[in-house]
C-alpha cells in the first residue's frame, strides 16, 4: 500500500509531462498538415539530370574544308 504513495505522484508527473509535450507539438505546428506527407510517398521522384563530362562543354573541333575539284 505504501508503493501507491510513490506511484500516484509519479504517474501524475508523467501525465503532466505528456500533456506539456502535446501542447508544445500543437503550438509548433506538428499537426497542421497531416495529408501531404502521406501523399508524398505516392509521387514519383524527379528524373536525375544526365551526367555531363568536360567533353560535353568543349566546342566541336573545326573540320577541314572539303577538297575542291580543279577544272582542267
Question: What does it look like?
Answer:
It comes from Marilutibacter maris. InterPro entries: Cyt_oxidase_maturation_cbb3. This protein has helices spanning 4-27, 36-40, 54-57. It is mainly alpha-helical. It is rod-shaped and about 120 Å long. The chain starts with a helix and ends in a 15-residue tail after the last helix. The model has no long low-confidence stretch (mean pLDDT 82).
Quick overview:
It comes from Marilutibacter maris. Residues 41-59 have a biased composition (Basic and acidic residues). Helices cover 46% and strands 0% of the residues.
Secondary structure: elements and pairs:
Elements lengths: L3 H24 L8 H5 L13 H4 L15
Give structural attributes.
3 helices, Cyt_oxidase_maturation_cbb3, Cbb3-type cytochrome oxidase assembly protein CcoS, mainly alpha, 72 residues
Amino acid at each position: 500500500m505504501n508503493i501507491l504513495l510513490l506511484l500516484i505522484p509519479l504517474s501524475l508527473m508523467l501525465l503532466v509531462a505528456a500533456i506539456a509535450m502535446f501542447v508544445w507539438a500543437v503550438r509548433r505546428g506538428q499537426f497542421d498538415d497531416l495529408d501531404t506527407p502521406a501523399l508524398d510517398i505516392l509521387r514519383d521522384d524527379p528524373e536525375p539530370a544526365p551526367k555531363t563530362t568536360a567533353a560535353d562543354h568543349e566546342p566541336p573541333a573545326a573540320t577541314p574544308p572539303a577538297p575542291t575539284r580543279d577544272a582542267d
